Amino acid sequence: MRLEKFISQQLEVSRAIAGREIRAKKVTINGEVVRDAAYKVQPDDEVEYDGNPLVVQQGPRYFMLNKPQGYVCSTDDPDHPTVLFFIEEPAAFKLHAAGRLDIDTTGLVLLTDDGQWSHRITSPKHHLEKTYLVEVEEPIDPVLVEKFAAGVQLHNEKELTKPAVLEILDEKAARLTISEGRYHQVKRMFAAMGNHVSALHRERIGDIELDEDLGEGEYRELTQQEVDSIGLPEELKQRK
């Protein structure tokens, strides 16, 4: 990558400003001042700006975040803070959520800069299971276990939802596993049954479970096993 582009991304400034900082002798590579904006940054280069080391990013990145309420999963929102607020990583702005949560929904969010990987999660044809803890306002009728397994007719939808697994935990709490991602699906499924979801927390996406050691707003890198569990085709794995 050209040094000008690298500095631009690292500092989150325009390339014009990055070029100016390079010409001002503020950038060193392997201890030497470099003023050539076209210099090709190598993976093993030690780059510093104003004496502060910059990380040369190699390969795609994968994180899990325990999302609190009040944050949106888009990367840029003029009205609400985004989940990227919590991510203290170089060029965090390049990350995106692989499967969003509503602003009032908490729990597992996966963040990556790997578009193929996130598409595997969000694509309807892969039917990746997602598990939620659900709290509702009215007592849960046990008959919903069978109704959710058979499919629910959502308002303004032609097709029933795919079979879902409902585990009733107590009078007003349940664990629900679905294999599709329709708009506000969990809330709409309960609404179709005459109940209102008061709290929603995502626990799992596929085989990736939210780390119980992560407090709200905390994140960690995914393990290689977790990354691979999404089931990318071999030809895409080999390109990483």
Write a brief structural summary:
Monomer. With 240 residues, this protein is an alpha+beta fold.
Polypeptide structure, described:
The chain is of the alpha+beta class and 240 residues long. It has helices at residues 3-11, 15-23, 115-122, 144-150, 185-192, 224-228, 234-237, and strands at 27-29, 32-33, 47-49, 52-54, 62-67, 96-97, 106-112, 130-136, 165-170, 173-178, 197-205, 208-209, 219-221. Helix 1 (3-11) packs across helix 2 (15-23). It contains seven helices and 13 strands. Strands 5, 6, 7, 8, 9, 10, 11, 12 and 13 form a nine-stranded mixed β-sheet that branches. It has a four-stranded antiparallel β-sheet with strand order 2-1-3-4. 28% of the residues are buried. A hairpin with a 2-residue loop joins strand 3 and strand 4. Residues 234-240 have low confidence and may be disordered.
Any descriptors?
240 residues, alpha+beta, 13 strands
